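Please predict the structure of the following assembly.
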Amino acid sequence: MTRPGEPNEPGDRDRPVETDARVETDGPVARTHGGGGNVSLVARREYSERVRSRAFVFSTLLLAGLAVVVALLPLMVRLVDRASVTRVAVTAVEPGLAERAVSVMDGFLNARLAANGEGGDTIFAFQPMDDAGRAVAAVREGSVAATMVLTRTASGGIDAQVLSAGALGPDRAQLLQVGTFAVGVLDWTASQPATTRPFVIPTFAVVDAAAGGSGSGGAVATVDAAEYASRRIVGIVFVMLSFLTLVFYGLWVASGVVAEKANRVMELLISAATAPQLVVGKIAGIGLAGLTQVALVLAPAVLTLMASDRIADAVLGTATGPGSSLAALSPGLLGAFLVYFVLGFALYAALYAGAGSLLSRAEDLQIVALPLSIPAIAGYLPAVLALSGGTSPFIRFASYVPLWSPFVMMARLSAGNVQPWELALSVGLLAATVPLVTWLAIRVFRAGVLLYGQPPTVRTFVRAVRHG
Amino acid sequence: MSLVVDHLFKRFGSVVALDDLAFEVAPGQVFGFLGANGAGKTTTMRIALGVLEPDAGRVTWRGTDSHRLPRSTWGYLPEERGLYPRMRVLDQLVFFGGLHGVPAERAKREAMAWLRRFRAEDLAGRKAEQLSKGNQQKVQFIAAVLHDPQVLLMDEPFTGLDPVNVMLLREAFLELRDRGRTVVFSTHQMEVAEALCESVAIVDRGRMVIGGRLRDVKRATGRRLVRISVADDHRLPWLAAIPGTRVIQVGMDRSSIELDAGVEPETVLAAAVAAGVRVVHFEIADPSLEQVFIDHVGHPLDEELHLAPVDDAGVPVAGGVA
């Protein structure tokens, strides 16, 4: 009798023919092979199966489209914003300064746009106010978008503090800065003999009126409105993408395990590879598919953001100034996203893999899908709150909890104001939880994959952990 | 130096799956593992593979505990067949070979060679979901033997196969044995076991009933079988006079008579001659494996394949094999 492969491999020396020799020579080799080799084999199979699936292609296209829309949002806001009128109150202690500034800025800013051939719409409505207190109150009430407080500095220059409660867009703020510059120039040429003092560029700052304080003190946090908007957009993209991908791919891990059980290929798998190899390989393969999708989704969005200034120039004309929507997308933030995504995915995927192994049929997937998505949703809500700059004790707590930190801490990082120790604690807890949960999942998996027809109850789970 | 199933115990909740099960398989043999559903055959195989943990006892191969053996020692064909439905046959075989440490190139060569042996080369590029059951079975068999394992554990390999594929699989078994591999397969089809096995183990409800070389197992019952051909009345009416005999197969050509322990075959021949029958052929043989099973377990192996007896009210009587 000939062996099946023999005619084709006369020189195949690495394959012992003698039965007894194989145990000695091949055995230990095959044993050491088992670990990483099988993990990567399983991972590669999962990866290629997922990436080629229709669900992957369609969801990538859909999400990439959504991300581009989100990336274009600031541009659209600018486009819409162009047509609206921003009311600005101007107040100054020095008599006449407020009125002079109003006439300069009104003429300069509104006329300048008209000269640009854009129809000469009035985009600023300036209103001098003598009472500084009333002007500040007007911002808080929302009757004006901003109040500009002009102060004469010691050197004779002008300091402009713009109080805003969020109603002043980044582009309008920039225009105001340009206007302030014009006020400074005219103030220097008109009120002083040119030789008495050199021209000083007016200082300009946007102050968040909602942050409290009198609005003119140096202690008030100065928020760059443009960066603030950018941080929110970047944060929304990261949190949404993490949430969707973790839940979606987690469910994919579970359904993959259930499918292997349902079509009984699992028996063959579990006899060829160990439970840890299968679980880790599956998580790695599907996780890499998820990361691939995130990259494919983010790339066009980032390109759009980078190109948005040029698009703005083409659509809105050159006068609108830089949008700088990418200001918040620092390499550090991207790195944090990667860390949280990988760890968060491993955590969720391990949970889903364990849960999936307890099911017998694809229909049962719904039973675990909802309970497993609840922790993710519960983490998504504080993340949205954190995006708007909230730092309540609950949000801070949620940003340390391993199941939630991938969303909440990412949101907090995007919004800023995270202490280094908080980040270390959050990542540390997450990194410590992942192997623990993976170990648990492997135990459940080992017992679960051979159980058929048992309802996925808490009791089944506990039994699986104890005997796995 | 053999495959030793060393006093295994295993319970699943309140169900006792294995109760001190012990037997040995000599290397290079085809070994039949016989028993009804629920006898513990699959559990034993899973313990050997290291997929399940026994409550007590162990399985060794050539003196090494199964836990310390590489998984590629075993080639496993599960009872429940399964492949990735949307993966191409060749890709699956390379994948499973890879899990056992066979490099992709060699796995591809071996897979194609085996497919050729099974006259199924054209399956290589097809997806598993497009295959007939018999062809899926072939692919799974190849997946189990691709890495050239020392021991093949085949759980009900012949169930659901058409006669042609049964023949192909039997030939493959014998070929693997001739190459020095040890083939253990479970079955509830006694004829297959009788035709293929050198040794058998009969298990019932997790306990060893009897095991050893096929001939010894048969002889141990004390029963014997007489095959007789007669020239005239093949219904053998004269046999009724001899106690402890039973016709198990009537044929124009040849009839088989089973003798209880203590009944001498010569009595049958003498009775035939006394009745004036012309005996054309007379042969003394061992009892069928089926009879051996009934003798030891108390009911036929395939009892569950038949309807349970009906009680007076016409309601099926509860009973049969658990």
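The CA atoms of residues 247 and 257 of chain B lie 4 Å apart. Confidence is low (pLDDT under 50) at residues 317-322 of chain B.
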